[in-house]
Structure formats: structure tokens, C-alpha cells
Design a protein that fits this description.
By secondary structure, the chain is of the alpha/beta class. 41% of the residues lie in helices and 8% in strands. It has a domain at 2-123 and 184-244 and 264-304: P-loop containing nucleotide triphosphate hydrolases (Rossmann fold), CATH 3.40.50. It has helices at residues 2-9, 16-21, 40-48, 72-76, 82-88, 98-101, 105-112, 125-138, 146-166, 174-178, 187-195, 208-213, 215-225, 251-271; strands at residues 30-34, 53-55, 91-94, 117-122, 203-207, 302-304. Strands 2-3-1-4-5-6 form a 6-stranded parallel sheet. The relative contact order is 0.14.
């Protein structure tokens, strides 16, 4: 009830309250920036149950992505007063998963909160895409069958992507927000934009699959990253979990999508310098006997994953081509 009221009072179309109280609001200490359908709702709920964290008025504000035309005071009005938090040694943050996906968001966050710690949850991109599609259908944004929707995705997104690349004031289009089933799984491309604005030490990159299986372990990892005392929660209930009655993704289409994402996953491995001593990924068929690669000594993002980003297969000329 309180969140619903706050969401109404601080809606982007009525920024007046933000102008009045926003000057006192804190800048976020941490941001969960993605990915959509990766477990951010559950993780944010767990974090805000910690006695040293105070939540924003709403979990997803989308200021640096969809609502950047609103005044800065409107965004800051979503957070407790900075002086109040500092006096009590508390932290605050939010979890707008659109920030990973929208190209301009990284630079906007860097200009506003350059010291913020950034948490990224990466889910197997095939599973993420299908879950995203099911959500769009449920919300009334999608009417096409999944196979047809992913086949038409490039055509649906083309004009919006062109405008995003040329119009700094443009933040979203319907298809970029609701029909980007494949594009949102291009994790390396998205992280590269963020790495261009923030040192890698400010990132914690997590596997959604590991989080779903071991929420307590991930929760403690995040508390350590945020320099907060470890506690155990009474329970770790998964929120926004899809209905068990929803259909499974057909095996043939899943295989096609795994092939589609294989080069993107390989690019992600290279970007995050995987495999490494703290990460275990499934071996590629042609590299099972290869010697381990020495880790780079340059600063790195902290990566905690069980290698569940997706298929490790690579495309060959004889493979059946995936959707676009």
C-alpha cells in the first residue's frame, strides 16, 4: 500500500512533489542495473530487509533510462534524506533493470552517482528471452507466437534503435522496451558501455541461475560487496516467479536460440576474462584439454557465476541458422 501511494505521488507526470523534497534526497549507494527477468525483484527485497539498508520509494524508478526528462529533484525524492542516512550509517539504492539495456543510461548514472556500486544479474539469455516474452503477453504488449516474435524482432526494433543512436533525448519506444527478447541478451555489448564509464571494481556480476538455486549464498556475496554486516533472513521467497502452468519452450527453438546466443556468450566470456580461478564454465568441445589461461592483472569486475549464461557451442557453416 505504501509503495503504491509513493508510486502515485512520484509518478513522472506529476514531478511537483519531487521538486519540493528532492533536494534532501540521497544519491544511491548501489544500483541493480539488470537484467530484466533475472531475479532483481527478489534480490532487492532481500537487500531492503537488511537493517543497514533503506529502500527507495519504489524498486524501479527508471530515471536514467525512461524518465530522464524529469528533474533530478524528482529522482532524489524517491530516497530518504541524505543527512538522515549518514547520521545512522545507512545505505540506499534502487533496481531499475532497464538501465543495463538503454544505451544512454550508463553515462547518465556516471554523471550523477559516480561512486555507486553496480550489481548485474545475468540469466541464461534463452530462458530470459522466453520469460520476457511470457511477461509481455501477460501484460498485453505481445500477440505474436514466440517464434514469430523473435524472427520479427530486428524489423520491429530497427527504427527505434536508429533513433536511440542519434537522438540523445529519446529514451524508449514500445518495441525496444517490450519486444527486445534477443537484444537484451547481448550482455557483453551492454556491459562494454558500462565499463567505459565506471572502473570494473565497482561491479558485482552474478548468475541468476545460481541465485535462484542458492539465494542465501548470493545474498551474502552482495552484502560483502556493499561492505555490510552479514545477516541471515528468515526466508528467501522468490518473487515475480512465472506460473508453473506456462508452456515450455520447444526444444528445437531452444536449440536455435542457443546457437544464436553462442557468439554473444563467447564475447561475454572474453570481456569478463573467463574462465578464471573463481569461475567455472562448461568446457568447449575443442578446448577441454587446453591449458588454463593466466588471469590478467588489470582491475576486474567481481564475477560470481556458475557458468549458466548459456550454451557454449559455436556456430559452424553446417549449423541450422537460428532466428535473426
Amino acid at each position: 500500500m505504501q509503495q503504491a501511494l509513493a508510486k502515485w505521488l512520484l509518478a513522472p507526470q506529476r514531478p511537483g512533489l519531487g521538486r519540493v523534497v528532492g533536494g534532501f534526497g540521497a544519491r544511491p549507494d548501489f544500483l541493480i542495473i539488470g537484467t530484466q527477468k533475472g531475479g532483481s525483484t527478489s534480490l532487492y527485497r532481500y537487500l531492503t530487509a537488511h537493517p543497514k539498508i533503506r529502500s527507495a520509494a519504489v524498486k524501479e524508478i527508471h530515471y536514467f533510462s525512461y524518465h530522464h526528462a524529469s528533474p533530478e529533484s524528482w529522482y532524489r525524492a524517491h530516497f530518504p534524506p541524505a543527512f538522515w542516512l549518514e547520521a545512522r550509517g545507512l545505505k540506499t539504492g534502487e533496481a531499475s533493470v532497464s538501465h543495463l539495456h538503454v544505451p544512454a543510461a550508463a553515462g547518465r548514472v556516471a554523471a550523477f552517482a559516480p561512486a555507486a556500486k553496480l550489481i548485474v544479474m545475468l540469466r541464461n539469455p534463452v530462458s530470459r528471452a522466453f520469460s520476457h516474452y511470457q511477461m509481455s503477453v501477460k501484460q498485453g504488449h505481445e500477440t505474436l507466437p514466440f517464434a514469430e516474435a523473435v524472427a520479427l524482432e530486428p524489423e520491429r526494433l530497427q527504427r527505434e534503435l536508429e533513433r536511440l543512436g542519434t537522438d540523445a533525448a529519446y529514451s524508449q519506444g514500445k518495441s525496444h522496451r517490450y519486444h527486445s527478447y534477443l537484444l537484451r541478451g547481448h550482455y557483453a555489448e551492454q556491459l562494454e558501455r558500462w565499463f567505459a564509464h565506471f572502473p570494473r571494481e565497482q561491479f558485482l556480476i552474478l548468475s541468476s541461475e545460481h541465485f535462484f538455486k542458492n539465494p542465501s549464498d548470493t545474498y551474502h556475496d552482495v552484502l560483502s560487496f556493499l561492505d555490510l554486516p552479514e545477516i541471515d533472513l528468515p526466508s528467501y521467497r522468490q518473487l515475480n516467479k512465472g506460473s508453473e502452468a506456462r508452456p515450455d519452450l520447444p526444444a528445437e527453438l531452444r536449440g536455435q536460440l542457443e546457437l544464436y546466443f553462442a557468439p554473444h556468450n563467447a564475447r561475454l566470456e572474453g570481456l569478463l576474462e573467463l574462465p578464471s580461478p573463481e569461475v567455472s564454465l562448461p568446457a568447449r568441445p575443442d578446448s577441454r584439454t587446453a591449458p588454463p589461461t593466466r588471469a590478467s592483472h588489470r582491475p576486474r569486475a567481481r564475477v560470481l557465476t556458475d557458468g549458466a549464461f548459456g550454451s557454449q557451442r559455436t556456430l559452424s557453416s553446417g549449423d541450422k541458422r537460428p532466428p535473426p
